[in-house]
Amino acid sequence: MPKGFTLWFTGLSGAGKSTLANRLVEEFRSRSYNVELLDGDEVRTNLSKGLGFSKEDRDTNIRRIGYVAKLLSRNGVIAITAAISPYRDVRDEIRAQTPSFVEVYAECPVAKLAERDVKGLYKKALAGEIKNFTGVSDPYEAPVNPEVSVRTDRETVEESLDKILSYLEEKGFIEAEASCRSGL
Q1: Among the four residues 58, 124, 128, 141, which has the most C-beta atoms within 10 Å?
Q2: What is the pLDDT of residue 89?
Q3: d(Cα 147, Cα 168) in Å, to the nearest integer?
Q4: Consecutive 10-residue runs of the chain (184 residues): their mean pLDDT?
Q5: Phi, then psi, of 101 in degrees rounded to 5
Q6: Catalytic residue among 85, 137, 160, 166
Q7: Model pLDDT, residue 119
Q8: What is d(CA 43, CA 37) in angstroms, rounded to the nearest whole number?
């Protein structure tokens, strides 16, 4: 059984953070690991209700996610976060406060995100119809040195998952179980 750690996904809306995080939850549960997912949308509904999208509110939301992830991981749980977390300084602040912090950057260009956006949010944001849209009219500060970077515009979900699992196994966060990978 692994010790707790925080697996922090960051990336633009639609980059695949939740998809990858949910698949990892399934994988870890199949290995009988204690795991919890802190999804950005769910946290906003249940823990950060009433916060807007100003920089201050976004920072507060991310700090709340970081605090809960730190509590979970120090108690032996794999805490997986899937929130845009647009500002590097707040992510770095959480990293400094959280032992066993692993940042995963789900990288995908805005043009590709707009292309595959079924809700049409990027199209509206690019047309100026949605204000404060991260990566379009609001900043997104990409990580400088994430532990793992996945290119969701070029890799399949399985390739990205394999990169993440390989890193976690190589660094001793989880036990190597090559047989589990075939099910991904």
Answers
A1: 58
A2: 95
A3: 10
A4: 90 94 97 93 78 86 95 97 94 95 96 89 90 88 96 96 97 78 48
A5: -100, 125
A6: 85
A7: 86
A8: 10
The tokens describing 110, both together, are: 């805005």
Amino acid at 42: E
What global pTM score does this model have? 0.90
- Please say if 166 is a catalytic residue: no
Rounded Cα distance, 11 and 167, in Å: 19
Q: State residue 179's pLDDT score.
A: 46
The Cβ-side half-sphere exposure at 143, using a 13 Å CA radius, reads: 23
Write down the residue that tokens 């939301």 correspond to.
61
77, amino acid identity: V
Q: Which amino acid is present at 7? A: L
